[in-house]
Structure formats: C-alpha cells, structure tokens
Design brief:
CATH topology of the largest domain in chain A: Rossmann fold
Shape of chain B: elongated
Distance between the termini of chain A: 33 Å
Largest sheet of chain A: 6 strands, mixed
Helix content of chain B: 55-70%
Strand order of the largest sheet of chain B: 2-1-3-4
Largest interface: A-B, 34 and 27 residues
Radius of gyration of chain B: 32 Å
Oligomer: heterodimer
Strand order of the largest sheet of chain A: 6-7-8-3-9-10
CATH superfamily of the largest domain in chain A: P-loop containing nucleotide triphosphate hydrolases
Number of helices of chain A: 10
Helix content of chain A: 25-40%
Number of strands of chain A: 15
Number of helices of chain B: 14
Structural class of chain B: alpha/beta
Distance between the termini of chain B: 25 Å
CATH class of the largest domain in chain A: Alpha Beta
Strand content of chain B: 5-15%
Shape of chain A: elongated
Number of domains of chain A: 2
Number of strands of chain B: 6
Order of helices and strands of chain B: HHEEHEEHHEEHHHHHHHHH
Number of domains of chain B: 2
Largest sheet of chain B: 4 strands, mixed
Chain lengths: ~300, ~425
C-alpha cells in the first residue's frame, strides 16, 4: 500500500527522560490514522518531529518517499493541542498572516478564507478582534487555518477538546470530507470513542514506545475474546448441555424493554459457531446473535496494563 | 526563497501591529514636543522675563560722570542739571527712578542714590552699578595724567576665547568639546532607552505568544529561528521608525522654526548659540559620525534583543522574567553609568576596554564616537560587536527553539545551557 508518511526507528531524548524510543510506523495515503496514548506518552513529540519543529536524535521521517525537509511543512496542516491566536489582531488579518506563511498569495488566501468562513458561518467576524471571539469560534478559525492551504497530510492533536457537541460534529464531518477528497489525516487523541468512529488504522504509543499498531477493525477482531450476545424470545433459560459443553461462561438471562431475553457468553475454544447456532435454534427463537468486539478503550487499557507489567 | 518570504511576512506583522497602536503614535508624537520644549523653553523664558526699556532721570552733581553713562537696551538716561530737585522728578510717572550722583563721587563711590517709587529692578541696579564702576575707574585713571592712556588700555585689553581644534591630517576641524560631550551623552541615552524599551518589548511579546499558545500554530508554518529573528528585526524596525520620525520632526524644527524663534526672542546672542549646534564638525564629518552611530545603535539593539529573546522564551510569565532579565539589564545600566566617565576621558583605558567588550561597547561607543577616536578602534569595536551579535542570535535561537515549548518551572542557567545543546 502507498504510504504518505513513514517513521523509521525514531528516538528522542530529553534530559531525564526519553520521549520516543525507537518508534516506527507507516501511514497509508488517504486514510484516517489514530495516534493513541496516555498523556505524556510521546505523541506530541512525535507530531512535532513530523512537523519539523524538533529534530529526532536518531531515525528518519519520510514524507512522499523523501526525507522530510523544512519546506515540507507547506504540505502539512497541523492543529496543535494547545492552540491560540493573536488576541489583538482582527480575524481577517490573522487568517491572512497564517495563510501567507503557508505560501498562499494574498489573493488566493482571501478567496479561500472567505469560502471556508462562509461554510463555517464565521465570515461576519472578519473584522472583529480575536479577543472578542468565543472559544468555539476561535477553534473554527484555527481549524480553517489548518486546512486552508489544502495540505496532503492533516494532523489534529486532540481536535475535539473544548468543542461543544454541535461544533465537534461539524468538525468531524469536515475532516471526513477532506479525507474523501484525498487528504491523509492523523488524529492524536486519548479519546477512544472518536478513534473507533473515524480511524482506519491506529498506533498506540505508551511509555515512548509503539506498543500496538494496525487496522482498527483487525485489531478489534484480534483482541476479541470469543464473546457473543444472544437475543431471543421466550423466558426459558438456555439448555444445560449447551451451557455446560459449548460455553466457557455465561451471564444470567436479562430481559429488555422489548420483551427479548439477552444473554452474553464466551465460547469454548472447541466450539463451532454454526453448530452452536443450530443447537440454539432448536431450543429458542433467535432474534439476534452478535459477536462482541472489544472497544478500542478496552484494548487500550489492556495493552497499557500489559506493557506496564513488562 | 520561502524562508525569506516567511521572514518578510513575520517582520511585516510585528511592525504593522505595533506601529498601528495608539500608544506608539502618542509616544512618537509627544516625545519630540517634549524635547523641542526643553530646547526652546529656556530661551523663551529669558526672552519673556526680560523687562522693557526703562527711563531714568539722571542728576549728576559732580558733573564728571553723566557724559560717560551710555544708554543700554534696558536703560535710557534723561540728563538734568546738577542742581535739579530730585523730588519733583521722582514723582514723574515717565521715570522709573531718579539716579542722583553726588558731587564727591570720584573720591567717595558710595555717594550715589537711586530714588524709585516702587522697589528697583535688580537687573537695572546691576547694570547701573557696573556702568558707574567703569566710569569712576576711568575718571580715576585720567587723574594720573598718563600720556596715550587710551592706546595703552586698548593694548592691554585681552579677550580670551579658546578654540579647541582637533588635529586631523585630512582636514582641520574646529569643534567644541562641550558639543561632543553633549552629543555623546544624548546618544548613549538614546540607545540605553531603545534597548530597555524595545528589548523588553521583544521579551514580553515572546512571553505573550507562549501564554497565548499561538506559538504552536506559528511554528508549524515557520522555523522557530525565523520567528525569533523576524520578531527581533520587526520590533527593531519599529524603533527605527520612531527614531526616524523624531529625527525628522526635530530636524525640521531646528532647521526652520528654531532660528526664527531664537532670533525673534533672543536676538543676536541666540544666533550665536545656534552656531554652536554646528560646532560638532563639518557636515561630512557629522554624516560619517551619524552613520557610525547608526551601526552601533543597530548592533547594540540586536545584541541585547537576542538576550531578551532568551529570557522571554525560557519563562512563561512576566513575573518570572524579571529576575532573569536583570542579567541583561545590569550591563546596560553599567554601561550607561560609564557614559559620563567616558565622555570626560574618551581615551582612558577604561573607555578603551569598555568599547571592545560587546556587553558595554554599544552604549560606550555612542559616548566616545563624537570625540573622533582612532578609526581602528571604531572598526575593531564594530567587528567584535557584530561577531558577538551573530553568536548571540545563534545561541538565542537554540535556546528559544526549546524554551518556547517549556511551560511551568523557571529554568536554571544550567538548564539553559543544556537546551542550547539539544539537537
């Protein structure tokens, strides 16, 4: 697969601690990539290295098959976690300043800015000073500044922190739209819900190391514990020979508001799912049979725990 | 190419944002008014305080002094016979007073009275006393009956006026030491003020960007080095803009308005004072001097602005900055304190060394330059200063790059050194 960005054995040390320890990862073009990890794991350092803000002590970063240079920041759009604007400048002046730093001419910048501002309904604020803006509005301005120069690679560090649900939704929609247009998106977050929802691939960084990397769906399958949920009609408990011989464990039956019974069980390794379903079908009226995949949050917690034990 | 472009955009922003501010416009316009005021006010005050010409009735009972007293701009004498009664004249409104010179004035100089209705003007009394003294002395000399007295006196009289001439192989320039000292002190004060004011501005502006967290957004587009240099240059241009406006306003005033004002109020004496303004040297010399000063002004600002940038980047609030900033402030104040000494002894050992050490050289050289010190000294000082500027900015950039992402704890000096070593 075509990778837009390859990080190869990157390490970065500061006095007293190691921020990144031999981290490698590849980001496929046109995907949404989650960069997960607890606070202080080294995500921001990695992002700063990708943005050419700091240099790695060792290792290489390759963007579009060449070693990253300072000029490459023009093809990257970065929304930092800690983000601010010049308070005393007007929104328009400020937006033009940042846009021109990204290499846009004044004319191009003005056109693109007005288009985005209108889309996000903040165009009427063009001549207002930033200090008059609400936090949500300032965030919208920052978002526009990140995507304005149509970068191939977008990096969002905790993009949803500080957004109200409505604006967060707008943001999500815009990000996915950008991906559909061909941009690659890196998401750095410790908000697991948004990863399941948005990301195709992910890397989990813990204690400066890449501890888990892969396709989100595959990872969830890989970490699955053979757990299933059965929904059926009728009040009878499952026959004993099934629970005894085919299931590792089984939760008590619970009936929900629709009058269905629900039960969650783990399969024994030897159990064949088709046989199980056939047996169940003889006994109860099945309304649903679903595998329960672990959430990214579960995986995250498990992996973080496991790596701590090492 | 894009590097230069980024730098230009940053410089433009720093400059535009500050020059637009009301506080900048106000200080820029008020300063020259204050300075012009300081120049003109003394002249105006003396001119306005000078009393009008006053008429005095003069009764000379000795008959020997009256003819020797000349009218002055202040006093006009109206002569009366020796036997006139002073009481009627004293009540005459047209006279400020009646001067009665006694018959025995030559032998007894106390034999003179001034009758006035109100208390006598002290400047008039001083003038009258001086005139009488001269007249009486002249009369006494005459009584010795010396031949060719006038000629002898003329020969004796010596009018001393030392002109200091600085010897220069190329051309002789007549200068006033006083003027050199004045220019030296004035310019070292100007640089002192600019460094304090605009150096601090560099520092607070960096701290502001840090606390605002706008830095993170900026450094994703430009290298921290470009941002720092852009800021230092941009703010430096604000300072230059201000100085240029001051020079233009004051220059225009000195060239057109001041001579007229002085001539109007102070007459010929004022015009002489004006000439002394140009005693610094010939115009070509003044231009060279100003160019040299400009070079040191810019070098001094850059050197200290880099130090202030280090301070600004390594802390995240103004309170913490104070202590670190004193590292920069102490040498600035020290060199400013040195300035008067340097002006008094521009070629002393202290002055020489202080002009080679970059932390003192800019301000000290401001004080020394008007004294036309040897060119090699100026060039060496300039060379050392500019090499130090390059080293300082390079070092500052290394610390700045790390410091801007450090929040919380104020770093120790040791940590700053460590930051400078990061890759």
């Amino acid at each position: 697969m075509d990778n837009i960005l390859e990080i190869n054995e990157v390490s970065k040390h500061f006095t007293g601690h190691t921020a990144l320890d031999n981290v490698s990862l590849s980001i496929p073009r046109g995907s949404v990539y989650g960069l997960l990890g607890p606070n202080g794991a080294g995500k921001t350092t990695l992002i700063r290295i990708i943005n050419h803000i700091t240099a790695p002590d060792s290792g290489t970063v390759t963007l579009n098959s060449h070693i990253l240079t300072a000029d490459d920041v023009k093809t990257i759009g970065y929304l930092p976690e800690e983000r601010g604007l010049y308070k005393k400048m007007t929104v328009g002046d400020q937006a033009l300043f940042f846009a021109r730093l990204k290499g846009l001419s004044k004319k191009e910048a003005e056109k693109a800015l007005h288009r985005w501002f209108e889309k996000l309904e903040i165009d009427s604020w063009w001549n207002r000073k930033v200090e008059e803006l609400s936090k949500g509005m300032a965030q919208k301005v920052q978002f526009v500044l990140t995507v304005l120069h149509e970068p191939e690679l977008l990096i969002f560090d905790e993009p949803f922190s500080g957004f109200d649900p409505i604006n967060a939704d707008i943001l999500k929609r815009e990000i996915l739209e950008l991906r559909d247009k061909g941009a690659t998106v890196i998401f750095s977050t410790h908000n697991m819900g948004s990863v399941e929802e948005l990301c195709d691939n992910m890397t989990l960084i813990n204690q400066s190391r890449n501890v888990l990397t892969g396709n989100v769906a595959e990872l969830r399958r890989r970490f699955s514990k053979n757990q299933f949920k059965l929904t059926y009609l009728g009040s009878q408990a499952l026959p004993e020979d099934i629970t005894q011989n085919m299931l590792e464990s089984c939760s008590p039956v619970e009936s929900d508001s629709n009058g269905y019974n629900n039960v969650i069980f783990n399969l024994k390794d030897s159990t064949d799912i088709r046989t199980l379903i056939a047996r169940l079908n003889e006994n109860v009226e099945i309304r649903g049979f679903n595998e329960i995949l672990p959430s990214i949050n579960d995986i995250f917690i498990q992996v973080v725990k496991d790596t701590k034990i090492d | 190419m894009s590097r230069i472009n980024n730098l230009r955009i940053i410089i433009a922003r720093e400059w535009k944002q500050r020059v637009k501010r009301k506080s900048f416009i106000i200080t820029t316009l008020i300063m020259p008014i204050v300075m012009v005021g300081l120049m003109v006010l003394p002249v105006l005050i003396t001119a306005l305080a000078a009393p009008d010409n006053q008429q005095y009735a003069l009764i000379d009972q000795s008959g020997r002094i009256s003819e020797t007293l000349d009218n002055t701009p202040l006093i006009t004498y109206v002569r009366y016979d020796g036997d006139t009664d002073y009481t009627t004249l004293a009540n005459d409104e047209q006279f400020e007073g009646v001067l009665v010179i006694g018959p025995d004035i030559i032998q007894n100089p106390d034999d003179v009275r001034l009758y006035t209705r109100e208390s006598a003007s002290s400047s008039a009394v001083t003038q009258i006393t001086a005139q009488l003294k001269n007249s009486i002395e002249a009369e006494r000399l005459k009584s010795y009956d010396i031949e060719n007295l006038g000629a002898i006196l003329n020969q004796i009289e010596a009018d001393v006026n030392v002109s200091t001439v600085r010897f220069d192989a190329a051309q002789e320039k007549e200068t006033s030491l006083m003027m050199s000292a004045l220019v030296g002190i004035a310019f070292s004060f100007l640089l002192y003020m600019l460094i304090m004011l605009y150096g601090n501005m560099v520092m607070t502006s960096i701290i502001e960007e840090k606390t605002n967290r706008v830095l993170e957004l900026v450094v994703s587009s430009v290298r921290p080095f470009e941002l720092m240099v852009g800021k230092i240059v941009g703010i430096g241009l604000v300072a230059l803009t201000q100085v240029a406006i001051w020079v233009a306003l004051i220059g225009a005033f000195v060239a057109w308005a001041l001579p007229a004002v002085i001539a109007h109020f102070a007459g010929a004496q004022g015009a002489e004072a004006m000439d002394s303004l140009f005693q610094l040297g010939q115009p070509s010399y003044i231009i060279t001097l100003m160019l040299y000063m400009m070079v040191f002004l810019i070098g001094g600002y850059l050197f200290y602005a880099a130090i202030y940038a280090v301070v600004g980047s390594s802390v995240d609030n103004i309170q913490d900055a104070g202590q670190l900033a004193s590292v920069a402030v102490v040498p600035i104040i020290l060199s400013f304190i040195l300035a008067p000494t340097v002006v008094a002894e521009p070629n002393s050992t202290v002055a020489l060394w202080a002009s080679f050490i970059p932390i003192t050289s800019p301000i000290v050289m401001m004080a020394r330059l008007p004294f036309a010190i040897p060119v090699w000294q100026t060039l060496i000082s300039m060379g050392i200063l500019y090499i130090s500027v390059i080293i300082m900015i390079w070092l500052a950039a290394k610390i700045y790059r790390v410091g801007i992402f450090m929040y919380g704890k104020k770093p120790s000096f040791k940590e700053l050194v460590r930051w400078a070593r990061y890759k």
